[in-house]
Amino acid sequence: MMNCKRAARLMSDELDRDLSGGERFGLRLHLLLCAGCRTYRRQMAFLRQACGRLAPGGDGAGRPPASPPRSAHSGN
Amino acid sequence: MSLDQDRPLDDGPRPPGGNPGLSSAGAAIAADLASFRPDMLRFALLHLREVAMAEDAVQEATLAALQGAERFAGRASLKTWVFSILRNKIIDLIRQRVREPVFEEPEEEIGEAEFDELYAGNGHWLDERRPSDWGDPERALENKRFWLVFEACLEHLPAASARVFMMRELLGLSTAEICAELSMTSSNCWVVLHRARMALRLCLDRQWFAGGRDE
Q1: CA neighbor of B83 nearest in space, from B49, B39, B52
Q2: What is the pLDDT of residues B98-140, one digit of tens each?
Q3: How far apart, in whole angstroms, are the C-alpha atoms of residue B90 and residue B53?
Q4: Measured between CB atoms, does A20 come within 8 Å of chain B?
Q5: CA B77 – CA B140 distance, rounded (Å)
Q6: Strand, coil or helix: what is B125?
Q7: Domain limits for position A27
Q8: B64-88 pLDDT tens trace
Q9: What are the tens digits of pLDDT across the range A38-60?
Q10: What's the sign of the alpha-carbon dihedral A49, A55, A57, A59?
């Protein structure tokens, strides 16, 4: 089975590129069996979400921020 | 929103030459633009790590917004628009900096062995280093102190890693675009991003989710 070190690398790569079929399969299998890596993956998603918030109106890695920036002015 | 047309500008968007000769559209957004200045400066500083350069970027973006104010009419969010201008200024400055040999000091990187201590010999997490649950991390997003920690963690990334990471996650560039700007290979770019995420995760884990969990 794929080890956690390799899985962590793929869980980063999947944020930047399409994984190959083999990589996706191997990662999915690993995640079924590894709670630590499932946690890691949620944390990667959270990092992306937080970065999206830091860029007002920015499209942090192509996605709009989940909600208005924290210090958005309320004048309108 | 209604604005007094005669309202003077705050210190932010005034160009060095004096009277900006604002159009009425420019005057209408000037005060709002000035109010964005602290956020813009903080954002630019995260990327550029030099106060003077960040101030230049913010000033140029603000001026460009004032001069192009007519084009803004009817858009959803002034802040979104001016940040998109700032984003382009930052990318220009990064591009210049990368190409100018003046700045070509050897830059720190996150080394390959940096995270070896997390893993056992077989490449699986060591028991005590296995990622532990962050609970409901979205709650942290509403906490001002969390953002101080988050920005501090970004600032602690080595410069070269931080640049790639922030171009990807804060400026929203694709890895192909980053590779082109920084003359990197894609595979190198992916490795740098991976290590930056690892480092950021560990920093947040240590500085916020472990220590401030009771928050």
Answers
A1: B39
A2: 777 555 566 778 888 889 999 999 999 999 999 999 999 999 9
A3: 9
A4: no
A5: 25
A6: strand
A7: 4-57
A8: 988 888 777 666 688 888 999 999 9
A9: 999 999 999 999 999 887 654 44
A10: negative
* Domains identified in chain B and CATH numbers: 24-102 (1.10.1740.10), 108-210 (1.10.10.10)
Q: Which residues lie closer than 8 Å to A64 by C-beta, 6 or more apart?
A: A52
Mark yes or no for CB contact A3/B119 under 8 Å.
yes
Asked whether the beta carbons of residue A6 and residue B123 sit closer than 8 angstroms, the reply is yes
Question: A17 and B186: CB-CB below 8 Å?
Answer: yes
For residues B184-198, average pLDDT: 95
Which of B186, B198, B138, B170 has its CA nearest to residue A7? B198
Cβ(B140)–Cβ(A51) under 8 Å? no
Query: Does the residue A32 lie in any domain?
Result: yes
A66 occurs within a structural domain: no
The CA-to-CA distance between both ends of chain B, in Å, stands at: 38
A/B interface, count of CB pairs below 8 Å: 125
Looking at the domain assignment, is residue A67 inside a domain? no
Query: For residues B107 and B97, is the Cβ–Cβ distance under 8 A?
Result: no
ipTM value of the model? 0.78
What percentage of chain B carries pLDDT values higher than 70?
82
